[in-house]
Structure formats: C-alpha cells, structure tokens
Amino acid sequence: MSKIIIGRYIPGNSIVYKMDPRGKIIATFLFIVIIFLANNWVSYFFLSIFTLLAVWATKLKPKVFWDGVKPLIWLILFTSVLQLFFTTGGKVYWHWGVFNISEYGIQNSIFIFIRFVMIILTSTVLTLTTTSLEIADGMEWILKPLGYLKVPVAQIALVMSIALRFVPTLLDQTVRIMNAQRARGADFNSGGLIKRIHSIIPILIPLFISSLTVAIDLATAMEARGYREGAKRTRYRVLKWSKYDWINLGYFALLTLILLLTRTY
Amino acid sequence: MKTGIKKIDLQGLVTLALLVAMNVVLQKISFGPATVKVGLGFIGSALLAYYFGPFWGGVGAVLSDLLKSAVFGVEGGFFPGFILSAIVGVVIYAIFLYQKPIKWWRIIASTLLVTLVVNVLMNTYWIHLLYGLDLRAAFLQRILKELITPWIQIVVLYVILNSLQRVKIRR
Question: Which residues contact A125 (CB under 8 A, 6 or more apart)?
C-alpha cells in the first residue's frame, strides 16, 4: 500500500509544462491514432525520434520515464516474444510445431516493442507534466460536445471533480482502516485465497460506510452554499490556450505528415 | 431492464462521485499470491452497476477509467477502446444486478459474461489493435488468467454484495 503515490506530476518549467492540458490530452489521443500509420522501418524510426524529442522537451530525468515503463517491461517482452513465435512469413530461421521464428516475426516483434514503449512514453509525458486537476479540467472541456447528445455534461463534470478531490482522502482512509484492522489482528498478506477474500471485507465495508457518510455531508454542505441543480454557474478555474499549444499541435501535424509519406501502402 | 437514465439528485451525484473515487482506489489494490494476482477493480464496476444502473453506472465507470489514468498514470496508454470495455462491463453487471435481489446465479452469469465479452473478446481485440499484436498471440497471453480469475471474482462479489446489503438497509 505504501508504494502507491498519488499523482505522478513532477513540477518543472520546460515548454511542455506551459502547454494547455486540452492540447496535451488531444495530442496523446492523436498519437494513439497516428501510431497505427507506422508500418515500416522508416516510419517507426521517425515515430521514435519524435517521441524521444517530446520526452527530451520535458527536461525531466530519464529515470522517471523508466519508472513508467518498468512495471510493464515483462509484459512488453512477453508480448514481443509471443509475437516473434507466431508470425509467419519471409525467411524461416527456426521451426518447431506451431512455433517458428521468421524474418517477419523478428521484424514484427521489434515493431511491437517500439509501439509499446512509445505509447507508454507519450502517456507518461502527459501525466508527468500535467496535474490531475488540469487533466480533469481538460477532459471536461473535451466532453462538452456530448452535451448536444443530451448527455448531462455539467453533472458528469461535477462527479469527476468530486471524485478527483476524494481519491487521496479515500486512499488515506483505506490505509488507516487497514492499519486499524491490523492492530486488532487482521492479516491481509497471508493465508489461502478464501481467507484473503474474507480479509477484504473489513476494509471494504468501513470504506463504503465512510464514503456514504461523506457523500451525505458533502451534499448537504453544497446545498447550504447555494448549489442548485442545473442553475447557471461561473467558472473560477479557466484554461488558457497559448502559443505553445500551437507548437504542440504543429509538431503532431508534422509527425502525421511524415508518417503518411513514409509508410508503405 | 430498467435503464437508470432517471434524474439523479445531488446526493446521488455525490455518492456516485465517492464510489468513483473508491473505484479508483480499489483498482490500485490487488491481492492473492504473486502468481494469480486478482485486482479489485471489478468490485467497483459491480458496485456502480448495482447501485446506479447502466447509465449512471456507465458514466461512473468511464470516469473511474479516466481518473485512474489522470491520477496514477496510464498503464499501456490512453485508448478509447478500454473506455468502451468499462461501459460494457457495467452494463452487463447492471442487467443482472441493478435493483435485483442478490442471487448466486446472477453473480455467476454476470461475471462469466463480463469475463468473456469484456476481458477475453473486447480487451484482447483492443490489444491486438493498439499494439499490432497477432490476435492468436494476444488471446493466448490472456486466456490463462481469464480462466482462473472469474471464479475468484464470483466468490468475492457474492460475499461483498451480501455484506453491503446490510449497510444499505441501515442507511
């Protein structure tokens, strides 16, 4: 439990920090889309170069990015190796039953490895350089068009900001409940599966009850302060689009163009 | 099936928000021996469906997914497909659990259906799309875990929903 860190934001003042969260979120989504365009060595080369430049632009230590990749490294390697054995085509180097190592297999597993790492790196750039509050504000703005489909965007935004505010509180609460139960002999890390399942209940039920209590109190407090359903309200936290965001989007437009030109059709 | 798109009051909204926060916290906790780690995220999805139904529960699931990424960083990247998976998961749980008595068969059916549709079919397909992984290889990689975890989830869900019922009555 103690290993959990809330918010992966690391303060800094490089150009990436000056960008609007909306621009960064859109860019991250866009990156997932254009990564599909890469399908040969040249396009993967440019993709990697651009990602590494974005990583470099954050001016953060490489170690923090390695920390983002580290928990998934075995999954990435396992996936690449599986891909290596299952792809057929090209020159066959080794063959046994359904497994074979072929020219395409080696190429594909390297591509998948690059893809994995690049996707993780870009989303790490976003979460490292943007506070979770900014991300939530950015997401709220992106959800706005859903209002035309009669989706209650204002209510959803409210739920999002309350939830975000209470994640650290509930995390603290969880740790406190676990410690309190431990003090009376609860054991969360040993015993068989069934015993462990039963050991979740003394955590979950108090957590649930305290959440319900908080919800009732908070709703009362909000109404006391004049919150009315559907009433028109103003915004205190406002996002501002700057020149750095045009640089950001221009950068992605350039990458898209390069990928379109270099990929094989 | 009740759709749950009914108007929700402030208290409902705040409760939903706290359940979402709880869901985000739960997704970070896993238990069991290192070989078969079972995450607790499914409890959050099932609770959202059980209390809020397919619509608001689905909203909660999407928000949990987004906030989890915002707070803890994204494991494996932003991909809209996984948001769709979260919605489908809650809708399946809601069909079986929303405003229904808790029965073994409901929990077994919903969990197995979620495992099959969401974890095995949809998520494997997303991984195939996202990483360009061979579909067979992606399937093979996931199937072992998905054969074991649903049975654990069924037991956990039954025990937890039954315990929570007592809480609900007291409220």
Answer: A16, A24, A28, A54, A55, A58
Look at residues A120, A217, A207, A197 and name the one whose alpha carbon lies nearest to residue A167.
A207
Looking at the complex, report in whole angstroms how far the Cα of residue B105 sits from the nearest Cα belonging to chain A: 20
Q: Between helices B41-72 and B104-114, what is the axis angle to 10°?
A: 40
Confidence of residue B1 (pLDDT cuts 50, 70, 90): very low
Q: Give tens-digit pLDDT for A166-189.
A: 988 898 898 899 899 889 988 877
pLDDT < 70: residue spans in chain A: 1-8, 89-90, 98
Please state, as a whole number, how many other Cβ atoms lie within 10 Å of the Cβ of residue A150.
Answer: 8
- Report the gap between the CA of B138 and the closest CA in chain A (Å): 8
C-alpha count within 13 angstroms, C-beta hemisphere, residue A120: 21
By Cβ distance, the residue of B79, B131, B167 closest to A79 is B131
Percent of chain B with pLDDT over 70: 85
CA B21 to CA A163: how far, in whole Å?
A: 5
Which one is predicted more confidently, B168 or B97?
Answer: B97
Q: Which of A71, A116, A170 sits opposite B22 (nearest CB)?
A: A170
Contact criterion met (CB < 8 Å) for B20 and A163 = yes
Question: For B37-46, what is each residue's pLDDT tens digit?
Answer: 667 888 889 9
The answer to whether the CB atoms of B28 and A216 lie below 8 A apart is: no
Distance from CA of B115 to the nearest CA of A (A): 19
Q: How far is CA A237 from CA A138, A161, A232, B85, B168, in A?
A: 11, 12, 16, 32, 36
Residues facing A101 on adjacent strands: A94
For tokens 């410690």, the residue is A179
Beta-carbon contacts below 8 Å between A and B:
200
Global ipTM? 0.86
> Hey, are the CB atoms on B167 and A212 less than 8 Å from each other?
yes
Q: Please give the Cα distance from B23 to B67 (Å, whole number).
A: 10
- Comparison of pLDDT for A71 and B18, the residue scoring more: B18
CB nearest to B25's CB, from A171, A205, A214: A171
Q: Do A108 and B132 touch (CB under 8 A)?
A: yes
Residues B56-102: tens digit of each pLDDT: 999 999 999 888 877 776 665 667 888 888 899 999 999 999 988 88
